[in-house]
Specification:
Helices cover 46% and strands 9% of the residues. With 303 residues, it is of the alpha+beta class. The strands form two sheets. It has a four-stranded mixed β-sheet with strand order 4-5-1-6. Strands 2-3 form a two-stranded antiparallel sheet. Helix 5 crosses helix 12.
Amino acid sequence: MKLYAPEYYTDFACIADRCRHSCCVGWEIDIDKATAQHYATLSAPYADAIHASIETQDGTPHFRLCKEDRCPHLNENGLCRIILSLGEEHLCDICREHPRFYHTTKHGMEVGLGLSCEEACRIVLCSDGYDRLVAVGEEPDDAERPDFDATAHRARIYAVLSERSRPYAERLAAIADAYGVSLTDRTDAAWRELLDSLEYLDEAHRALFRCYSSRTAQATAWDAVLERALAYFVYRHVSDAADADELCAAVGFSLLCERLLASLIEATEARDLEAVVELARTVSEEIEYSEDNTEALKQAFLL
């Protein structure tokens, strides 16, 4: 079975020590079963350091974080000692795959790049071609494919979203109307209250997100970037919807995340791409990378 991805996917490569938000800092890194078994038998150079770094309490083996929640294998230059000593093939699954995500559709397996990675975020927000998928590899043909074809709805959304002869605000409204979702069914105050109730990695972001507004602003210099951001949220959350209810909730969630990003751009008076990329990365990290937060916001469209 072929594995498909948006056209921009092949442009991604980890920027390692040039990254300002290392995925090796601040996250507990679980070790998958196969890699844990591999590490247990490893006797190569650096094996002792790996063995000593593994914590097995609570059932799931993981690397014991060091000062400032740094991975014990992250050196002073922001590079991975496991890769430097043994090679990338010795990484556990989560380290090898990040920031990739996968979903199974009626037509096969797809992969994408998550916005919480700053380099992936830059590529996604700067690249056209979100509606063009390319084959990037092969996957075992053993995944159960859903009966519901959410990709047909994704194509429908992309057709509207990419119709640039229409004002961007009009395209947003057309997508919302097509799926019976509305950000104005709740007041902005109610949305801010819900956002405030979520869990946050950084408490400063709780206050930052209080700027949320569903108001569709006049055309701005960032409409093309917001379009690509919305296309990403749709790709990640709409593509594997299991039924019509999940589909509508995913569309609503995607529109909400796009409006949150638009609100942050306006509130912070972001003036350059680097600032906008950081805001989009923050939205993804705080919202998407918490299953609880994502579910809470999707549930708001099912009530």
